[in-house]
Each structure stands twice: as C-alpha cells, then as structure tokens.
C-alpha cells in the first residue's frame, strides 16, 4: 500500500463535516454547510431524500418532526410544503428561516469548493432515486470526479451496487454499525463494488482498518462528538473522520 501522507507526525485524514458543522448550526442547512467550509472541512456530508412530487431534498430523518416546525413524512409532503418549513429555529433562534435545501442547489453551491459525501438515506422508500441522483451528478460532469471530491454512501447495500453500475467512476461507500459486516467474507463482498467501508466508531479496531486497506478500500468512521472519539480514530489509522465538530479533527481549523 502507498505510504500515507502525514501532517507532522500524524497521517493526513479527511475531515468530514457530518450534515455540515452540526455541533454549531442546524444539520443539513446552508448555515451548517457554509460553516463547515469556513472551518476548512475537506467534505460536507449530506442526507438525500425525496419529496412527494419528486424533488431531491436534504434532511436526515424520514419525518420532518425533529428538525423543522412541521410534522409528517418527508415523502408525503410536496416540495412546496417542505420548503415552507423552518429548519433552523429548533437549533437556535438565530437560525430562524433556514430552509430544507435541495440536492441540486447544494451541488451548485459547493462542488469544486469542498468535497461532498452524499448519503442516500432510506433509498428503499424512494424507488428510482438512484437514477435521479446519478442524473444530477452527470448534468454537472460530477460523474468523472478527477478533480472533484464526490463519494456516494448508504446503509442500503443494494442501492450502492446500483449506484456503482450507474456511476462507475464515482467512489461508493457502505455504512454500517453491525459487527457482522466486518467479517473477511463480508468485507470481501463489499470490496467488489465499494471504495469506502464506513463504520460507526464503536466497531473500529486497528485490525479492521488493516483488513479494509488490504482489500484496497478506505475507511471513514462516524460520528465524532468529542475530542476523545476523534483521537481514538486518529490512533486507529482511519482515512476519514465524520464529525459534528470539524475543529476536533483539525484543531487549527
Ligand atoms: O456519514 C455517516 C453517518 O451520517 C451515518 O449515520 O444516521 O448520521 O446518517 P447518520
Ligand atoms: Ca448521514
């Protein structure tokens, strides 16, 4: 394996702002993504779902209840209904008026400025969403990401196999917090279509990191909400740290 670049004594690790700089601003909003860029994150992580009338939108939960002033399932609400919601006030009154962003506006605003880790959230609820996401990336030439940092990931492995076929040049990631997915057999199967194996940090060991690397994949882990968790993942030798606090991953930022 090629020698890893280092910063001082430390290996270079991608700093991924989980749903934006979520420790400081409401997740999956422009406020959180702008702050992540300001804090010099290498990537923003986004959660993609779909409105009733087919618009790709960014929100984590499959309902709007926790992170907006509305109620109901994302897929039962029209884009107009979703867009009328306040996605900021729940986090702090200074964020009042933040909207649920669309996938296309976020691609246009950030591609080329910061990497984008696209999570397809519960794609089984949105038949055909794989083709739709692929189309948005192709329209912007982001399906040939030589100079652009784009990764697509999901907990839904069938969906990721499909994305690998639709976008063969775009790196694919699999997400899990299940130890059963860390066996040599499971990892070998992931490596047939995935470039990244992205586990929750509770199941990360140095041995797992080495196994993933020996199969030619990279490993990104989540979700860091303390300096101790970030330091643990540095120690384990992961390639990316997915964090609510970009400053824990690089305190100089
Ligand atoms: O990027 C990893 C992480 O986002 C997966 O979990 O629930 O925060 O989407 P979740
Ligand atoms: Ca996510």
Automatic annotation (TrEMBL):
The keyword Signal applies. GO terms for molecular function: phosphoric diester hydrolase activity. GO terms for biological process: lipid metabolic process. It comes from the Bacteria. Gene3D superfamilies: Phosphatidylinositol (PI) phosphodiesterase. Keywords: Signal. Residues 13-253 form the GP-PDE domain. InterPro entries: GP_PDE_dom (IPR030395), PLC-like_Pdiesterase_TIM-brl (IPR017946). This is Glycerophosphodiester phosphodiesterase. It comes from Lysinibacillus halotolerans.
